[in-house]
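Appendix B. Chain record.
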Amino acid sequence: MNSLLKQISEKAIELADFEFTQEQTENKWLGTKPASENEIQLTEKRLGIDFPTDFKQFMSITNGFSAPNDIEPTFEPINKIDFLKNIDSFIIETYSLNGIENIGIQLEKSIIVGGINQEQYFLLIPPNSTNEKWKYWKFANWHPGEEEHENLESYFKEVLSFLNETIESEKN
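Structure tokens predicted for this chain:
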């Protein structure tokens, strides 16, 4: 995943569609220092969950990751991660209406790991039972419904692919 995040950083900075700090531009890196194992464990204890392995790996590479463009969320530092209901309870109420209450149920238990105070969120949704898997959702009010990803790597591969396509289309 480290290589994937480096490629996203380099492509996003090359594209320059978004404002990056001087440090990010010079280092060609949109991440920060890694989260410590202790910081990850304290957050898991605070939330009463065990994060999926790939998310722990991500946080051990970078404790937060800037949005590479204006359509992806910024991944939050470990100390800002919380349940969505504690950050934006209104969106849960909105999606708890008849006909879409299944989305509201998922949002109610979701953990926001990206996009606080942005137009789109990145959510981790814990499984209901041991035989279920974590869900990975990119979620935005203006984009009807959720955009589910198999895992973090598949999400970041999609982001990199989009950046590559954008660079190619600008060349033509």
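Further analysis of this model is presented in Appendix C.
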